[in-house]
Amino acid sequence: MAALRAGLLGVGMMGRHHARVLRELDGVELVAIADPGGDPHGVAGDLQILPDIDALIDVGLEIAVVAVPTRFHEAAALKLAEAGVHTLVEKPIADSVEAGQRMVEAFAAAGLIGAVGHIERFNPALQELRRRIEAGDLGAVYQVTTRRQGPFPSRIADVGVAKDLASHDVDLTAWVVQSDYERVFAQTAFKSGREHEDMITITGRTGSGVIVNNIVNWLSPMKERVTVVTGEKGAFVADTSTGDLTFFANGTIPLEWESVSSFRGVSEGDVTRFAFAKREPLRVEHEAFRDAVLGDKTDVVTMEQGLRALAVVEASLASARTGDAVRL
């Protein structure tokens, strides 16, 4: 079978990695790159840098990746849908729920695969975590907390930390526990002089009753990417920056020190750090998209799912503005 003809729109900080993976992916041939800003990272190789999405489409594509700033996602995706091109759009799906809904409808009407790059679903630590939760290793799930914080990235100018980063945590939380957010309450802060928020804390509950807390900011000098899932049998800690997964089991040995046991709900048990294959999340994401285009059943993140994550983020921002909890 001939390789799928692929095009890439945007070769900035994220687009350069898409270019590398597309070139290495079996069954895919990167035939065109477009970026009105040129090729700042020198990834084009033998390919000419085209000026815009129209020139990219004219090359003749079967699949495309959109890795430009969020505010340009809708216009590019709608043109690709009209041209009959299966498309993977970087997260968030769009800069508004309304724009995202138009994208969902366009790809559905055209019968095309429309996907969103929520790459954390393909992180080996989170995939292993979800498998173990499904297998019952944690028992009932009680709570999910995430921490995603680090320095401000000067490349992000069109959205705040909620849409750029918290969208990761919203999507991965709902995916790991397999239940959508039911209601949220959030608080934001604006400390860097920009029009968009640079800090947000989202507290919520999923439809299955899991309590959620997402802590996200661009104001920390340390970079942290941690997900903690607490349940009936202990707690899983996934570090998605390293791909590590650790399980802290509830202890089974009674504590004899009364002053300690009196304030501990559970005792400390065995700690296990799991060993498993750790493949690059972006490569796994691209394989899922490729296989979905070829008609296989995969875990690709659909535009409908990407839109749901954006709706939760927008509800959180609305909560922060009004001071009230928002039910989805």
UniProtKB/TrEMBL annotation:
Residues 5-118 form the Gfo/Idh/MocA-like oxidoreductase N-terminal domain. Residues 127-236 form the GFO/IDH/MocA-like oxidoreductase domain. InterPro entries: Gfo/Idh/MocA-like_OxRdtase_N, Gfo/Idh/MocA_Oxidoreductases, GFO_IDH_MocA-like_dom, NAD(P)-bd_dom_sf. It comes from the Bacteria. Keywords: NAD. This is Gfo/Idh/MocA family oxidoreductase. It comes from Microbacterium insulae.
